[in-house]
Amino acid sequence: MNIPSELKYTKDHEWVKIEGDTATVGITDFAQGELGDIVYVEVETVDETLDAEEVFGTVEAVKTVSDLFLPLSGEIIEFNESLENEPEKVNSDPYGEGWMIKLKISDASQIDDLMSADDYKTLISG
């Protein structure tokens, strides 16, 4: 299982890549494996400002629909629109072409609350 060490993680199985005041967010390799074949990603919160842990969208797999929780407070500035036609990118490349949103971070202190790769490994091996 792939858990890149340069990323941050949440207990909700999302990964966060921090670049300045922008965060790219997606779901982890573990999460896509648990969900199975992803058939739809819905994000209708672009241009909205949400608090950490608010629902910013949903991911629909053959077996289930899961809410997506915002890892950090901020404004959602971009949705990966390629997922509208190719949601399976989340399965094939969760940390690359399967990214979901970009976020303008409003409270950088929240970054300290995210999990390291080692913390996340401990969580999923629990």
Characterise the protein shown here:
There is one protein chain. A 6-stranded antiparallel sheet has the order 1-2-3-9-8-5. A 3-stranded antiparallel sheet has the order 4-6-7, with no helix packed on it. The chain has helices at 29-35, 82-85, 89-92, 117-125, and strands spanning 8-9, 14-19, 22-27, 38-42, 49-50, 55-61, 65-69, 74-79, 101-105. Helix content is 19%, strand content 35%. It is built from 4 helices and 9 strands; from the N terminus they run βββαβββββααβα. By secondary structure, the protein is α+β, with helices and mostly antiparallel strands. It has one domain (8-108): RNA polymerase II/Efflux pump adaptor protein, barrel-sandwich hybrid domain (OB fold (Dihydrolipoamide Acetyltransferase, E2P), Beta Barrel), CATH 2.40.50.100. The longest helix is centred in the last third of the chain and has 9 residues, at 117-125.
Tally of contiguous helical segments: 4
Beginning-to-end CA distance, first to last residue:
15 Å
Largest sheet: 6 strands, antiparallel
Proportion of residues in β-strands: 25-35%
User: What name is given to the CATH topology?
Assistant: OB fold (Dihydrolipoamide Acetyltransferase, E2P)
CATH homologous superfamily annotation: RNA polymerase II/Efflux pump adaptor protein, barrel-sandwich hybrid domain
What would you report as the Rg, rounded to the nearest angstrom? 13 Å
Decide which structural class fits the backbone. Answer: alpha+beta
The CATH first-level class comes to Mainly Beta
Number of strands: 9
- Architecture, CATH level 2? Beta Barrel
Q: What is the share of helical residues?
A: 10-25%
Oligomer: single chain
